[in-house]
Structures are given as structure tokens and as C-alpha cells.
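Customer escalation, tier 2.

The customer says the design service returned an amino acid string that "doesn't look like it belongs to this structure." They asked us to rerun it and document both sides in this ticket. The original C-alpha cells are below, unchanged.
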């Protein structure tokens, strides 16, 4: 069995569709998504539609997903998040159907699943917190604390891909599909062959012209949204 490991799509439908097209072409059996479907960009409805329509997708909630759901009940929080992250939160509120919101509300913050006789734990920030950052340059003592009891522990949140192994237990962060921070406009994800235990890092460049146009329309004063997609172009 071969699985794809994704995270941090952030409503970037062009990047997500491109990644999904390649996953389907490569005959992947299951897709694990470590949260943050929404936030930053502008097509959360289309991203969630894909996730809801696929029986082979396992998805959890990220911190931006949780932020959005909390903001639906708190207008002051909504205003604060828009000021920090951009207008995507308001656009998400307008675009998502009641059914999509209900689906998002019912995503777990962490899952433990068995695929092909291998245990996998998936969380967003860390196995204890959606907002904790786990980086590969932390000490081995610190990284060991972030391992679950499963053979594979999948985390997201940092937008920086890495793998780390300790006594046949793995930490895997696939990086970000929708907003990479280690390399501009290049979606990052992993394939994992559960039979051979071989990990393969996949990267694919996605078009940014439409996204930049939407940023200019919806968030012209948010320099970060533009900068993160255009720095160090490949």
C-alpha cells in the first residue's frame, strides 16, 4: 500500500488540484492531510469539496481551521484574524455551505489509524498541541518527545518538510501544499510505501498568477501573502 502525506493547503486550489492530479496519476491508495485546509487564500469551498468527495482521504483539523470555526461565533476574533492573516477568513465564511462547515467542525485534531498493518498517528502542530512548532533542528531529546507510539508520526504546521527517525519510529512533516515557506511556489508532499517503508519527497511547482491577482484584489496591503509566494523564485 502506498500513501500520500500532505498538509497546509490553505485554500490554494490551484496547488491542491495539481498535487491531486499527480497523486491520482501515480496510483496512490490513500491520502493523509495534516490540517489547515483554510486560511490565507481564497478557494476553501473547492478544497473542502475535494476532501469530502474522496473516500480515501483521511483529514484532521489544523490551527487555521480551528481559528475560522471559532471566529464564526466571535466577530471580534474574526476581525483580529483578518487583520493578521488577510481577508480569507471572511471569504471562507461567505463561501462555505452549512454542510461544509459541519464537516469542518467534525474533523478531529488528531487521528491514529492502521494502514497495511502499520500504525500512523497524525496531528497538526504536535501530538499535544495544534499550534506547537516542531522543527528538524531541535535536539534529539526534544524530537523524541514528539514521537507517538505509532511507527509513523505525521505533523504539519511549520510549512517546512523534514523526516527524522529514531529506532524505527518516524517523524514526518510533508511541508505545505498551498504556501511553502522553504521554497517559493513549490508544493511539497511525501509518498510512503508501507510495504517497503520507503519515503519519497515530492515537489511540484504551481502557477501563482491567479493567486497574486486575487491577493491584489482582496488583500492589497498584506505584503506577506505576496512575498511568501515570490521570494527566491525557482
Amino acid at each position: 500500500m502506498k500513501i500520500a502525506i500532505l498538509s497546509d493547503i490553505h485554500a490554494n486550489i490551484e496547488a491542491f488540484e495539481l498535487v491531486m492530479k499527480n497523486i491520482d496519476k501515480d496510483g496512490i491508495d490513500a491520502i493523509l492531510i495534516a490540517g489547515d485546509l483554510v486560511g490565507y487564500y481564497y478557494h476553501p469551498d473547492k478544497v473542502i469539496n475535494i476532501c469530502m468527495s474522496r473516500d480515501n482521504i483521511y483529514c484532521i483539523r489544523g490551527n487555521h481551521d480551528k481559528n475560522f470555526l471559532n471566529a464564526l461565533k466571535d466577530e471580534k476574533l474574526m476581525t483580529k484574524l483578518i487583520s493578521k492573516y488577510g481577508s480569507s477568513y471572511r471569504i471562507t465564511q461567505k463561501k462555505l455551505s452549512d454542510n461544509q462547515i459541519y464537516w469542518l467542525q467534525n474533523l478531529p485534531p488528531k487521528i491514529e489509524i492502521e494502514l497495511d498493518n502499520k500504525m500512523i498517528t497524525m496531528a497538526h502542530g504536535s501530538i499535544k498541541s495544534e499550534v506547537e512548532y516542531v522543527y528538524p533542528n531541535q535536539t534529539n531529546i526534544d524530537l523524541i518527545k514528539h514521537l507517538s507510539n505509532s511507527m509513523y508520526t505525521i505533523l504539519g504546521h511549520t510549512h517546512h518538510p523534514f523526516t527524522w527517525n529514531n529506532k524505527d519510529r518516524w517523524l514526518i512533516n510533508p511541508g505545505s501544499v498551498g504556501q511553502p515557506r522553504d521554497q517559493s511556489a513549490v508544493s511539497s508532499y511525501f509518498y510512503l510505501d508501507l510495504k517497503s517503508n520507503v519515503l519519497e519527497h515530492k515537489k511540484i511547482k504551481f502557477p501563482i498568477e491567479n493567486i497574486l491577482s486575487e491577493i491584489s484584489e482582496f488583500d492589497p496591503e498584506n505584503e506577506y501573502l505576496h512575498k511568501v509566494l515570490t521570494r527566491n523564485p525557482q
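Tier 2 assessment: The sequence is consistent with the input. DSSP finds nine helices and ten strands in the chain. The first helix runs from residue 13 to 25. Sent an explanation to the customer and offered a walkthrough call.
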